[in-house]
Amino acid sequence: MIIYKSPDEILGMKKSNRIVGRILSELQSLCRAGTSTLELNQHAEKRSHEMGAVPAFKGYRGYPASLCTSINEEIVHGIPSARKLKNGDIISLDFGVIMDGYYGDAAVTYPVGDVTDEAQKLIEAARASFFAGIDKICPGKRISDISHAVQECVESYGFSVIRMFVGHGIGFSLHEEPQIPNFGSPGHGPKIKPGMTLAVEPMIAAGHWDAEILADHWTAVTMDRRLSSHFEHTVAVTEEGVDILSYWEEKTFQWTGDSL
Ligand code: MF3
Ligand code: CO
Fold first, then answer.
1. What is the pTM of this model?
2. CATH 3.90.230.10 fits 7-259, yes or no
3. How many CB atoms are closer than 10 A to CB 222?
4. What is the domain partition of the chain in residue ranges?
5. Ligand 1: does its nearest atom lie under 6 Å from the Cβ of 61?
């Protein structure tokens, strides 16, 4: 069942999501050679508490940390450790909090120092595919129109879309209906309507999309061990357009789809 949110509830979600966006933006300057992923996790926890929010991932299905730190071929759910970042790495940070009962969730991939052209292009493609996806969010469109647009964008760069994980509804829980795959044919799934709150999260690979989970039962990696990038925001569908709740600042996008 899809839970549609009132404008007041969307405002509540904006508060928790802004905290996520702010913390992810603060973490960028810490993503330099020599920083351990545990230090990144500690910063995220400390700042959440300072802002009155509770990290949402810790303990979720037994996940042992607050932040997911996925380096290079790691796609998602990398567990923070003493491992230090090196020049040329790319790191995906996925973070979520709860405040006043509302969940926030977002992710971004940062380069560490100087990275290859391919790595830079992969990061750009993940970000661009998110915007290609949310560009389809308007009345009359369906969930798989987002999926199809993400896939088309990623493949136009010569990269591939990870199949093992999907985006999702979010709000009173971290994962609500509907599921939002990042690939597939258009015109399927629930109709997009005001009040929907969605975490749109392309996870993409430089090589093949096939993935596996490491022995720690969490870290997902590309089977061919080539690079992966992740970009995620929580958005609200409103009467006016798409509101990116997990942006650090206010940003509303008007309808641009062709269905009106
Ligand atoms: N952004 C991820 C998701 O939507 C966060 C889950 S990580 C977990 O599934 F550790 F909490 F599982
Ligand atoms: Co998510």
1. 0.96
2. yes
3. 24
4. 7-259
5. yes
